[in-house]
Amino acid sequence: MNKLKLLLMLRRNIKLSNRRHPMFEQNKVAVLFTAIGVGFMSIYLIAIGTMLGWGARGGDEGLIFAIWPMFLLLDFFMRFGGQQLPSLMIKPYLLMPIRKHDITDCFIILAMCSSFNLIWLLLLMPYFFIAFCGGLTFGTTIAMLLVCEWLIIINALWSMLVRTLYNQSIWWVLLPIVVYAIPFSPMLFLGAEKGFEEIIEFCYDYGFSLPAIITYAIVTVALFITNSRLQARLASSEIAAEEKKDFQNTTQMTFLNRYGLTGEYLKLEIKSAIRNKALRQRYIQGLFLITMLSLMLAFTDVYDGKFAVNMWCLYCFVFFGAVNLVKIMGPEGNYIDLMMTHKENIYEILKAKYYFFCAVLIVPTLLLLPPVFSGRFSVLMILAYFFLTMGVEHCLLFQLAVYNKASLPLNEKVTSKGNFENTLQIVIELIVFFVPVALAMTLTSLFGNTIGYCILIALGLGFTIIHPIWLRNIYNRFMQRRYTNIEGFHATR
After folding, report:
1. 415, 397, 283, 275: which is closest to 330 by C-alpha?
2. What is this structure's pTM?
3. C-beta of residue 493 within 8 angstroms of C-beta of residue 407
4. Is residue 66 within 8 Å of residue 200, measured between CB atoms?
5. What confidence tens digit (pLDDT) does each residue in 64-117 have?
């Protein structure tokens, strides 16, 4: 089988795999929300491209290369946060009589040809159409358009490499930091304003030059080869179950023995967060993001509005719950049969999860002390979002325990199926992130900051005090759906 046939076969199989996945029917609402979001984003991109085009017509058409690095940086973070690795479906093909590197090469090519790379044409097409109407020749217009799109593809390969390395170790996050810091180093020696102007002028003068084109070609080949070899090696290691063993004694956490079965499940929750790669990465990522946000809010004026301050304060508190509890019971889906062998096991594990995530809230509270000391956050606001997350937010997220029925891989990173979503997950995610902020803004506007935040504290404490009632209700509803859920857990292991 030549590479073209293999490429077409893999493309067809990916589409069929997505359609046959048990979550496909429930993903339709998620696709609808995504389509709406893409629609709004498309309008903004077209508007930005049009404005830039009118500003660059008549001799300044190279302006796009001066500002394109900022869009590439935005593109990188968009990919880093949401797009799956191309080695997603590599696992079954490694057992077939096909060269391993041919498979990885085809997956990388599919990523390079992804429709996600074309979304930036919504900005580029209006820009270059106006530039062409302003006197730019047709050949130069097409060449500049292709070079800009080429840079997006290079960015896709770069993002793929960083995300693959990041999945192996959190310390690889330093790689993009160093790479992006190098171009901005003139700002340290020439001053922020002067250095930034020099960077813009350099990109404007040399972004479309022959040396730049040669550099783009070398970088493309280097990234392609590096990605191909790295992902093939990691996938083979995972299939062969090669894992670095760390024979260290682990604490028995005997202080939890006094809490009976709930204490045992608390031990399971803590050890799962420490030992399982997929779960551990989420907590490490949360520590990094919250620390960065805390420092930005404390020492910069990037987010200065009242809405932004409240939004990011809530985000820091709800992050761990939103990332982990939105897939609640997913990790337990791998051994759900054992959970069902004794009466009320599920209720006890729900209690243990609730106490664990309440304890986790201490972490963002400590990390948000710098904004408190700098005066950006008030102590009352911190307490309001702390108790609101502990009570109301957790109550909402725990409702998903009734409806989630897809097992979540604990350790697989390169060849896993990725995230699963259902309709209710999307709705609750939107409510959890936006409704409390809107409620806080309304209450503080009507009654002032002190009374408004006190009302939120009372609301959160109320839901926290009655947590045995709503946890019992969730347990009873879960047991009514237990056979449907167990079937879903079995199908997605």
Report:
1. 397
2. 0.66
3. yes
4. yes
5. 888 888 888 888 877 765 556 655 567 667 677 777 667 777 788 888 887 788
